[in-house]
Amino acid sequence: MEELIKFKNVKKSYQVGEKTFNALDGVDFTINKGEFVVILGPSGAGKSTLLNLLGGMDKVTSGDIIVGDEKISKYSDSELTKYRAENIGFIFQFYNILPTLTVLENVEVVKDIVKKPKKAKEILKSVGLDKHINKFPNQLSGGEQQRVSIARAIAKDPLLLLCDEPTGALDSKTGVEVLKLLKEQCDANNGENTVVIVTHNSLIAEVADRVIRLKNGKVEENVVNKHPKNIDEVKW
Known about the structure:
Elements: E1 3-16, E2 19-32, E3 36-40, H1 47-54, E4 62-67, E5 70-71, H2 77-87, E6 88-91, H3 103-108, H4 120-126, H5 142-155, E7 160-164, H6 172-191, E8 194-199, E9 210-215, E10 218-224
Parallel strand pairs: 3-8, 3-9, 6-7, 7-8
Antiparallel strand pairs: 1-2, 1-4, 4-5, 9-10
């Protein structure tokens, strides 16, 4: 498989008073194009920091992050802005959709970001929200709001879909539905889309192509799951 992402001795440090805190402390791993990746670890392990660096929302203290043929760790602020806009779809635990816009309008905002977005109505139909396009977020359930967030992310047709605890605020049944949508996105475009999920839920690892375990800012394990389970096979 074609290598898509490479972290080489990546460190991210913060100054807390007189002490230096290493959120990531010499992280090395690779991810291949088309993989459904789960990054596991307890709170404070460095999961969200890693996702923010990969998504171009933060900069490394040292080390290299390579996506495709581009060393994004050396990008300027303007280059990172372009990288995020053109290549990254973000899905967060608490949706981050705009309360004053309708469902359709929330997805159509990507037209101002990318040149060739997917059609909003078609995407909303694919995530089961075609009957709710004129509703506002406060008229939707949590699961429906998360599906709006997913629709907005995939409407960009991103190279990478980055998900920070995407099922954390949902009940198990709704969480399974959301995972299925993410897996479908990974399998789209002839299996060339790549999805990276940060979570503390170890059950999600059972359906992943690759599992990366973090602890204390370091990679404890980076393994390929040769026989990932179907989402419906997992005892949620």
